[in-house]
Amino acid sequence: MKTSVPVSHEQAVVEREPITDANQDAAMHGQEITEAEREVVLHGDQPVVAKQTVPVERVKLGTQTVTEQQQVSETVRKEQIETDGDQGHRPA
Q: Where are the domains positioned within the chain?
């Protein structure tokens, strides 16, 4: 006899949340994230005469630094200072 049975498995999900002025305090006081890798064992169903959940995959979570270029613009001001004294003499 052959039949189709539903099987499930876990998948790793990474959620990214931007830090804003409204949530900055809460974000900075949570659990410390270090440079160490994190591992999670994912489980999945394997059909047999009876269904059982077994480990099927291990996921490592780490961080990497991404550098990108962004264009910025701003008006640059220049200030000149006039002084009284020897205007024709500059020290070497």
A: 1-62
Residue type (1 letter), 74: E
| Cα–Cα distance measured from residue 35 to residue 28, given in angstroms and rounded to the nearest whole number | 16
Report pLDDT digits (tens) over 20-37. Answer: 888 878 777 766 766 677
The residue type found at 89 is H
pLDDT in tens, 39-84: 778 888 887 777 788 888 887 877 777 788 877 778 878 888 888 7
Under a CB-based contact definition with an 8 Å cutoff, are residues 40 and 59 in contact? yes
Looking at residue 32, the DSSP 8-state letter turns out to be: P
Longest Cα–Cα distance of the chain, Å, equals: 107
